[in-house]
Specification:
Structural class: alpha+beta
CATH superfamily of the largest domain: RraB-like
Shape: elongated
Helix content: 25-40%
Oligomer: single chain
Number of strands: 10
CATH topology of the largest domain: Alpha-Beta Plaits
Strand content: 25-35%
Number of helices: 9
Amino acid sequence: MDGRTDLSFDIDALFDHMSNNLNHALDDAKDWNFTLRSHDLSALQEVAQELQSEFIVQLQETVEEIGLDGQVSVGKPMLSVSQQAALSVEQVKSVASLLETIALNRGFQYEGVECYEPVDGDEVFGWLEPDDASRRLQHMTDCGLEDNAPLPWAFLIVTKTGESAAKLWDSLADSEFEDRDDYGEPDEEGNYGSCVFVDGRNNESEMLAMLESINTIAESVGGSLSGVQFYSREDLAEFFDTEYVNDEFGDDLNLIAEEDSIEDEYL
C-alpha cells in the first residue's frame, strides 16, 4: 500500500480534493455516481426498482474489465445509482451509508462514489450529427449492448420548402419508409421535413448503409440529413418535451431535452 487515500470512500477527502485541487464550485450541481456490484443480477434489478423513484439508476449486465496484464475479462454486473445536485458532505455521506447498508444486507460489493461535472442533456440525448452516430453506437456497445441486438434508429431530414418536402415524402414512400412523421408546417427557421423510424440493430455497417440511403434520398430533393438517434417513436416522446402529431413540425424539429431523470438507457 502507498498510503494514499481512496477518495471513493473517504468523502471528506473527496470534497477537500475537489475544492482545493480541482477548484470545483461545490455550490454548483454535480453528477454523483455510487456503484454496487453483484453476480446476482436479479437482486440488483430489485434494488434498481426500489431506488428509481429517488435516483437515476443504470444496470449493466455485461461489464468488461481490463487487468494489470492488459487482458480483458467479464466482471460482475454493475448498478450505478446517480444524483445530479449540489450535495453537501453530509448528503453524500447519507447516500453512501444507504448503499453500504444495502450492500451489507444483500451481499453486494459497494464500490464507493465518484463525482463529475454535469453532462449536458442536449449533448447526450439530443440529435446527433450523422458523423457522430458511429461513435455513439460504439459507446453503447462498450457499455454492454450486444452485437446485433435490436436497436431502433431515427433519422431527421430537413428541407427548405414545402415543395421539396412533398417530394421528400414521395421518395421516402417509394423506398418503403412508411414509419415516419412528416412535417407540413415550417419551423421558426422555415424548415420542413420528416423523421424516419427504422427497426434497426446494433450493427455499425448496417446503420451506416441505412444512413447513406436516407441521406441520398434527402439530397435528391434538395434536403439534408440533419440528425440521427437510436430512439423509437415512444423513446422520443419520453425523452423530449414534444407531442408527435403530423403537421406540427415546429415543435418536433427543435427538440429540447427535458431535465427529468432518464433511466436505464445506454449513454
